[in-house]
C-alpha cells in the first residue's frame, strides 16, 4: 500500500510574502529530510523562483499550449536540496479563468500518479488568496489539500483576504473540503501587530502557527535569487522558518474556522484603528510633556 502524501495549501493576499514563506518552508522541510514538491498556483508563475536561483520554469499550461500530450515529468524541475518545483501557470492575458492552470495541473498529476511515483512526503500548493475564482478554490473544494494555512499580516486587506478564505473553507467543510490549520503571521515586528493578529485568530476560532518578522535577511537572500534557508542558513530568520516547517510537518488536526461577516469585520477593524490612534496620541502627549 502506497504511503499517504501530506498535501497542504498556503493561501494569502498578493504581496503579503506568501511565496517567500512557502519557498522557505519547502526548503526547510527538505533540509529536515522530507521529499517535497512545491506547486505554484499563481498565474505569475513565480512561486518557485528562489528555489531555483531566480529562474522561471515552463508552466503546465504553457507546455500544454505547445503540444497536445504532456508527461508530468516535462513540467517538474528540481530545485534547492531536491525540492520538486512545478508552476501551474495561467491562461493567455485577457482570456479564460486564472484558476484553470490549477485544475489542469492537478488533473494531469493525478492521472499520471506523480506523487506516488516520486515517493513524496509533502506537497505544498502555493495559492493566491485574494482572487474570487473557482479555480483557486480547487485545493479546498476538492479536498486535495488536507490542511490550509493562510499568510497574513496585521494590515486590514490581508486580514480581509484571510477572512474570505475562512468563508470558503467553512462553505466546503461539510462536503469533504480542506480544513484550516492556522495563520502564519507575517511581517510582525511591533507588539500592536501581534495583538491585532492574535485577536483576529481568537475571533475566528483559529491559531497562530508562527510569527515571522520582516527581515533584511530575506531581502538580501531574494536579491541573490535564493531562499533564506539556502542563502543564510545560520540566521535567526532561517531558524524561524525551520521551526514553522517542523510545526507544519507535525500538524495533523485542522478545524472549521468561524469567519466574521463583513459588517462585524469592518467594526472590528475600526475598533482596532481607534485603539491605535489613542495609543499614538498618548505617546505623542507623553513625549510633549517630557520635552521631547
UniProtKB/TrEMBL annotation:
Reactions the enzyme catalyzes: N2 + 8 reduced [2Fe-2S]-[ferredoxin] + 16 ATP + 16 H2O = H2 + 8 oxidized [2Fe-2S]-[ferredoxin] + 2 NH4(+) + 16 ADP + 16 phosphate + 6 H(+)
A molecular function GO annotation = nitrogenase activity
The record, for Pfam families, names: Fer4_NifH (PF00142)
Q: Which Gene3D superfamilies match?
A: P-loop containing nucleotide triphosphate hydrolases
Q: Which UniProt keywords apply?
A: 4Fe-4S, ADP-ribosylation, ATP-binding, Iron, Iron-sulfur, Metal-binding, Nitrogen fixation, Nucleotide-binding, Oxidoreductase
Q: Which InterPro entries match?
A: NifH/chlL_CS, NifH/frxC, Nitrogenase_Fe_NifH, P-loop_NTPase
What's noted on cofactor binding? Binds 1 [4Fe-4S] cluster per dimer.
Q: How does it assemble?
A: Homodimer.
Which family does this protein fall into? Belongs to the NifH/BchL/ChlL family.
Q: What does this protein do?
A: The key enzymatic reactions in nitrogen fixation are catalyzed by the nitrogenase complex, which has 2 components: the iron protein and the molybdenum-iron protein.
> What NCBIfam families does UniProt report for this protein, alphabetically?
nifH
Q: Which protein, by its recorded name, is this?
A: Nitrogenase iron protein
Q: Which organism is it from?
A: Anaerocolumna aminovalerica
Amino acid at each position: 500500500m502506497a504511503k499517504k502524501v501530506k498535501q497542504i495549501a498556503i493561501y494569502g493576499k498578493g504581496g503579503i510574502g506568501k511565496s517567500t514563506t512557502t519557498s522557505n518552508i519547502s526548503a526547510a522541510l527538505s533540509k529536515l529530510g522530507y521529499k517535497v514538491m512545491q506547486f505554484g498556483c499563481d498565474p505569475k508563475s513565480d512561486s518557485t523562483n528562489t528555489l531555483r536561483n531566480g529562474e522561471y520554469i515552463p508552466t503546465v499550461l504553457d507546455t500544454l499550449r505547445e503540444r497536445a500530450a504532456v508527461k508530468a515529468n516535462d513540467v517538474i524541475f528540481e530545485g534547492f536540496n531536491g525540492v520538486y518545483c512545478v508552476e501551474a501557470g495561467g491562461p493567455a492575458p485577457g482570456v479564460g479563468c486564472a484558476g484553470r492552470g490549477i485544475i489542469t495541473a492537478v488533473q494531469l498529476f493525478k492521472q499520471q500518479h506523480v506523487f506516488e511515483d516520486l515517493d513524496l512526503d509533502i506537497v505544498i500548493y502555493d495559492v493566491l488568496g485574494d482572487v474570487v475564482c473557482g479555480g483557486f478554490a480547487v485545493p479546498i473544494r476538492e479536498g486535495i489539500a488536507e490542511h490550509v494555512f493562510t499568510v497574513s499580516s496585521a494590515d486590514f486587506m490581508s486580514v480581509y483576504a484571510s477572512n474570505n478564505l475562512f468563508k470558503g473553507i467553512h462553505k466546503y467543510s461539510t462536503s469533504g473540503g480542506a480544513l484550516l490549520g492556522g495563520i502564519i503571521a507575517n511581517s510582525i515586528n511591533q507588539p500592536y501587530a501581534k495583538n491585532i493578529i492574535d485577536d483576529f485568530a481568537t475571533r475566528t476560532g483559529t491559531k497562530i502557527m508562527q510569527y515571522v518578522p520582516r527581515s533584511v535577511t530575506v531581502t538580501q537572500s531574494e536579491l541573490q535569487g535564493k531562499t533564506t534557508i539556502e542563502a543564510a542558513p545560520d540566521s535567526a530568520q532561517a531558524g524561524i522558518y525551520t521551526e514553522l516547517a517542523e510545526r507544519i510537518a507535525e500538524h495533523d488536526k485542522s478545524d472549521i474556522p468561524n469567519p466574521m461577516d463583513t459588517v462585524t469585520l469592518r467594526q472590528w477593524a475600526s475598533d482596532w484603528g481607534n485603539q491605535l490612534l489613542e495609543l499614538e496620541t498618548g505617546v505623542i502627549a507623553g513625549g510633549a510633556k517630557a520635552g521631547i
